[in-house]
Amino acid sequence: MVFSSPLFIFIFLPITLAAYYLIPGRAYRNVVLFVLSLIFYAWGEPRFVLLMVFSIALNYTAGLLVERFKNSIKKARAVLIVSVVVNLLLLAVFKYTALFVDTLKSILPFMSTVATPIIPLPIGISFYTFQAMSYVIDVYRRETGVQRNPVYFGAYVTLFPQLIAGPIVRYRDVADQMEGRRETMEGFVSGIKLFSVGLAKKVLLANQLAALWRVLKVGADTNGIIGSWVGIIAFSLQIYFDFGGYSDMAIGLGRMFGFEFLKNFDYPYISKSISEFWRRWHISLGTWFREYVYIPLGGNRKGLPRTIVNLMVVWGLTGLWHGASWNFALWGLYFGVLIILERLFLGKLLEKLPKWLSNLYMLVLVVLGWALFDFTDMRALGPYLASLFTVGKAGAISHDALVYVVNYLPVLIAACVGSFPLVKKLHDKLTARPGGEWIDVALVAASLVLCTASLVAGGYNPFIYFRF
Predict the structure, then answer these.
(1) According to a count of CB atoms within 10 Å of the terminal CB, is the N or C end of the chain lower?
(2) Residue 163 within a domain
(3) Residues 198/243, Cβ–Cβ less than 8 Å
(4) For helices 409-418 and 225-256, angle between their N-to-C axes, nearest 10 degrees
(5) 293 and 152 housed in the same domain
(6) pLDDT for the residue numbered 466
(7) Within 10 Å of residue 117's Cβ, how many Cβ atoms?
(8) Which of 131, 133, 149, 148 is nearest to 65 (CA)?
(9) DSSP conformation letters of 269-305
(10) Range(s) of the domain holding residue 399
């Protein structure tokens, strides 16, 4: 069950909201959220519910022990280390075992007969594992208080709005809200609006762009140079509206239940550098790696050589976090190198360039990066990248590619415009006028009607980040 399915929108969500608001009292409402969030996860992953419960029990107990041993640094640190190691081992076993075995087989000839284990990946394990780990680390650092109520902690880890694809919510950011949030009509209405925006991004834009990318992705030899560029641009827009749409839906759902999650995307494609892009893209993940990996490694406090090493470690891990394939690690390192170059000299040069030129620099490098991100088969990546810079037999654009591009041109234009703040500024200006609130009512209604029609007519199309 996913946010963009009629089952969720018209059955699960109304039942959950009714159960939540009909039961008075914060404690009981957290119980409702905990139980229904487990049901939500079990709907698609029933066999992995026990794994999630184990993760909750592990980190809840670790938090209590860290607090208990707060006057004994050695004991508290030992508990922290054990909890982090167990969390990472769980993540490694389920997510990276096959990659590890395949890598050894390619290096050690005598392992060629060893079968690669097939271990199903629990949806959202990267997200809820990072959330649970951050809680124990923050208790150890005394940056948040310990949560003694297991139901409250369980509700934090399993909270269904952001359970399976983020944003990554640190406990210290919602600690007060777990016990003292206030549900308001204003917040509820705002949540519905944001949820509808996210739904439209996913269903009306991302899903359509995915269809175009599927066709052009396999046509490196026949697309023509323009066709190939349109294809990878379509994927760049698809992943933005797919994950950005999910984040909007998650934040909107949170508001319906009285929570305020931090923004996860801030128009990344308007950036003027790669560094700025990563301050605007998947903000919660960047914050997590900065707080719990980069700074503990020493950050930029131990000289330039150490800073470079720290950045490469962080970006290599960031890449691997996205998937168990070496193309993801290369993708992360690719951005790590670019960010290091910007720190060394490129950043100052970009500041002197016209804004449109620095934006173009960022867009070209990010789009090329998305090619590295999506092609897990490195043998297919090379020909596609080559098709972006060479005019082959198909010329500028083949007839077949042109037909597809023309058919999807309205979606491409809408996505390009929607990736910049112009639409939001226009919306805010119109709704600020007298009677402007009815514009939002009409937009929400239109979004639900169009998205429902599209979902009923189309097939299953999960969010890209579910696999992470």
Answers:
(1) N
(2) yes
(3) no
(4) 50
(5) no
(6) 54
(7) 11
(8) 148
(9) GG-SSHHHHHHHSSHHHHHHHIIIIIHHHTTTSS-HH
(10) 187-467
Map tokens 């016990």 to a residue: 179
Domain boundary, last residue among 136, 157, 181: 181
Give the whole-angstrom CA distance, residue 117 versus residue 373.
24
Residues of the chain with pLDDT under 50: none
Q: Could you report the per-residue pLDDT of 34-64, keeping only the tens digit for each?
A: 999 998 888 877 888 899 999 999 999 999 9
Q: Are residues 175 and 203 in the same domain?
A: no
Residue type present at position 26: R
* CA–CA distances in Å: residue 74 to residues 79, 192, 453: 9, 48, 59
Residues 280 and 345 in one domain: yes
Angle at 264 between CA 140 and CA 208, to 5 degrees: 140
Residue 362 is predicted with a pLDDT of 96
Cβ within 8 Å of residue 118, ≥6 positions away = 98
pLDDT at 214: 92
Asked if residue 413 and residue 325 are part of one domain, the reply reads: yes
Residue ending a domain, choose from 181, 210, 239? 181
What sign has the CA pseudo-torsion 313, 271, 390, 387? positive
What are the residues whose beta carbons fall under 8 Å from the beta carbon of 43, sequence distance 6 or more?
1, 12
Longest CA pairwise span in the chain (Å): 75
Nearest to 132 by CA among 162, 151, 95, 158: 158
Q: Residues 443-447: contacts with CB within 8 Å, 24+ apart?
A: 443/193, 443/196, 444/192, 444/193, 444/196, 447/196, 447/197, 447/199, 447/200, 447/204
Same domain for 286 and 425, yes or no, is yes
The pLDDT tens digits for 236-254 are: 999 999 999 999 999 999 9
Task: Tell me the backbone φ, ψ of residue 25, rounded to 5 degrees.
Answer: 95, 130
278 and 262, same structural domain? yes
For tokens 């206030």, the residue is 182
The DSSP string of 153-165 is HHHHHH-GGGTTT
One domain, residues 53 and 148: yes
For the chain, the domain total comes to 2
Distance between CA atoms of residues 366 and 371, nearest Å: 9
Q: Which residues are catalytic?
A: 322
Q: Show the tokens assigned to 216.
A: 């052009």
28: Cβ contacts below 8 Å, ≥ 6 apart: none
Q: Which of 221, 223, 204 is nearest to 213 (CA)?
A: 223
Total Cβ atoms within 10 A of residue 87? 19
57 is a domain residue: yes
Query: Residues 49, 41: contact at Cβ < 8 Å?
Result: yes
Pair (211, 323) in one structural domain: yes
pLDDT of residue 331: 96
301 found inside a domain = yes
Contact 95, 121 (CB under 8 A): yes
